[in-house]
Specification:
Oligomer: single chain
CATH class of the largest domain: Alpha Beta
Shape: globular
Strand content: 15-25%
Helix content: 25-40%
Structural class: alpha+beta
CATH topology of the largest domain: Vanillyl-alcohol Oxidase, Chain A, domain 3
Strand order of the largest sheet: 15-12-14-13-17-18-16
Radius of gyration: 22 Å
Number of helices: 14
CATH architecture of the largest domain: 3-Layer(aba) Sandwich
Bound molecules: flavin-adenine dinucleotide
Distance between the termini: 37 Å
Length: 453
């Protein structure tokens, strides 16, 4: 049977009814790029993926992939490619005794929570519960409690992959180990389609405690200086972030600084001890308000991050990773913190210090701090300005930047190359593996500036 017929109504060529809807749906961001794939395959299983890759080969098309569509630059949407939408590959097969799961790339963080919580199991998915594991894990995945676990991809034990020839293979430590190496961090530079991730699960922390302090923006130097200064001493079971925005606290007077702290502990006492440096900090007396440490019922209660990122709004996003001292980083951030262009726009400071050493895998570059710059708006006429604000402030941070975390796909807009994401030897190895696994360049690679027009 011709390959096209095998896919039947799951294949939409440009111009077909339903194509435009599928094209727009492929991008979570309310800002939809004009790029038009030649066709879109709404795959339902790994066989559909394999047929789609062979069809692309037959037609001389490149292949791109999307899972949850959260790539801010819509890295999966490529002009003239065959886009394989794997969001329907969302099965979860959990073995509670072995503490393992086999999940499809379309599984969302919230799906994992719903399935794992009753089994007292846990997986560190993205902080926003609508991010899919597909792009999250391929890009490394800095999820909940990541300072204790490391990036989520460390807990990937194997991947099922459709290769450039349309063949389905398993990759793990003992077979196709170089493909396994690449699947843990290559992100949009991966040269295959992952149809399943084999995950190692963690026991659900016995106690999850959260606390929040809201500080006036005028305290930014003092607060950030203190927080950044103690980043290496914070307990590894604390997941801390400082979000500067008007939106979360709904302050009528402009942005405030919301310090959110989560402790993932084995006992009440361990959680209290981990949060003590914050609950006892002298600075807390200057907070506009505080929520004292309280137990969180389950991961489903941690929806604060989702409130920052409703679907349908327009987003631009960049980040930097830094090893700079407080005296260098804090002044460098001042211009961004004092010029947020809309109430929902925000700057996040995240502590990455103290995580376990990275194993040998493509995900290889990690600073001790990450700063995210995010603009959020709804009026399309502001697109250029909102994007320019992000790029401008990311550029101003370049003197304190040691790399970028792939989630923002920042390289496309700032003209950066993949060396922003990888240690030099890891990038060389990745490109050598691309030659081996995808010599004809069936798969698109990193989204570069020239691809975005
Ligand atoms: C609101 C929001 C919150 C976020 N929070 C976090 C966070 O807490 N931590 C974090 O680390 N990141 C976070 N991110 C970034 C996010 O992890 C990345 O953007 C990730 O790529 C999204 O995965 P996705 O599958 O939803 O996106 P997609 O856009 O579908 O995928 C991104 C790219 O990954 C590749 N890809 C995806 N699936 C496959 C597959 N099965 N096979 C081959 N290639 C594939 C493709 O190249 C695709 O273009 C967040 C992003 C947003 C928008």
């Amino acid at each position: 049977m011709p390959l096209e017929r095998k896919l039947e109504r799951k294949l939409l060529w440009s111009g077909d009814e339903g194509y435009e809807q599928a094209r727009r749906h492929a991008v979570w961001n309310g800002r939809k790029p004009a790029r038009r794939p030649a066709g879109i395959v709404l795959a339902e299983d790994a066989d559909d993926v394999a047929v789609a890759v062979r069809l692309a080969k037959e037609r001389g098309l490149q292949v791109s992939v999307r899972a949850g569509g959260h790539s801010t630059s819509a890295a999966g949407l490529r002009e003239g490619a065959l886009l394989i939408d794997v969001s329907r590959l969302a099965s979860m097969d959990i073995d509670p005794l072995a503490r393992t799961a086999v999940v499809g790339p379309g599984v969302l963080g919230q799906d994992l929570d719903m399935a794992l919580d009753p089994l007292e199991l846990f997986f560190p998915h993205g902080h926003c519960s609508t991010v899919a594991v597909g792009g999250f894990l391929l890009g490394g995945g800095l999820g909940w409690n990541w300072r204790a676990y490391g990036p989520g991809c460390v807990l990937v034990r194997a991947v099922d992959v459709v290769t450039a020839d349309g063949e389905a293979v398993r990759a793990d430590e003992s077979q196709n180990s170089d493909l396994y190496w690449a699947a843990r961090g290559a992100g949009p530079g991966f040269f295959g389609v992952v149809t399943a991730f084999h995950l190692e699960l963690r026991p659900r922390p016995a106690v999850i405690k959260a606390t929040a302090h809201n500080y006036p923006l005028a305290m930014r130097g003092e607060l950030l200086g203190w927080l950044h200064g103690i980043r290496h001493e914070m307990s590894p079971i604390v997941d801390p972030s400082l979000c500067v925005t008007q939106h979360v606290a709904r302050s009528p007077d402009g942005p405030t600084m919301l310090l959110g702290l989560f402790a993932f502990a084995d006992s009440e006492r361990e959680a209290e001890e981990a949060l003590a440096p914050f609950t006892n900090a002298p600075l807390r007396e200057k907070a506009l308000w505080r929520i004292d440490p309280a137990a969180v019922g389950g991961m489903q209660d941690l929806t604060g991050v989702d409130d920052l990122y409703p679907a349908g709004l327009r987003y631009s996003h960049d980040n930097i990773m830094s090893n700079a001292s407080a005296s260098a980083l804090v002044p460098a951030l001042d211009a961004a913190l004092t010029s947020l262009p809309t109430p929902r726009s925000h700057v996040n400071w995240l502590n990455l210090a103290g995580s376990p050493e990275l194993p040998d895998m493509a995900f290889s570059l990690l600073g001790d701090t990450m700063v995210e710059l995010v603009t959020v708006w709804d009026d399309p006429s502001r697109d250029a300005d909102m994007h320019a604000w992000v790029i401008d402030h990311a550029r101003r941070l370049e003197p304190v930047t040691m790399g970028n975390q792939m989630s923002a796909d920042s390289m496309a807009s700032r003209g950066l190359g993949p060396d922003a994401y990888f240690a030099a030897d890891a990038l060389s190895r990745l490109e050598a593996l691309r030659d081996r696994w995808d010599p004809d360049r069936r798969f698109v690679s990193f989204l570069l500036g020239r691809d975005t027009v």
